[in-house]
Amino acid sequence: MVLETISRIIKIQLPAYLKKLPLPETIGGFARLTVSDWLRLLPLLGILALLGYLTIRPFLPKKKKQKDSLINLKIQKENPKVVNEIDIEDLNRTNVCYCRCWRSKTFPVCDKSHIKHNELTGDNVGPLILKKKIL
Fold first, then answer.
1. Catalytic residue among 65, 81, 112, 131
2. Residue 11 bears catalytic tag
3. Are 77 and 85 in contact (CB under 8 A)?
4. Residue 131's pLDDT is what?
5. CA-CA 20 to 30 A from 81: which of 1, 48, 64, 103?
6. For the whole model, what pTM was predicted?
7. By the 8 A CB rule, do 101 and 71 touch?
8. Which residues of the chain have pLDDT under 70?
């Protein structure tokens, strides 16, 4: 039943549809088509455009930014850079910055590698800053 329906569409209805289309004999004939003629051609032109796109799609350049390479997927995404300050009373130094991008060459201490990471990926990760309150 399904194959009979598909066969009928391909053998009878599609040729009948194509015969009714107002296809001009020359390229200049397209300029003389009426709005009504163009509206009747739209479904065919849409299908041809889709098939053309699907044909060239594998050859199109890939996007350079990959969102799956982001480290921070959901924390404070509305901010250009996420920086947290935490007061800890028993630090040896006044300020300590810890890496959260996993790119620091001095990990776990931040060496500002997150700046390059953010530029390359569009991420917004920043260091964790621990501050000692001075009384």
1. 81
2. no
3. no
4. 81
5. 64
6. 0.41
7. yes
8. 63-69, 73-74, 86-87, 89-91, 135
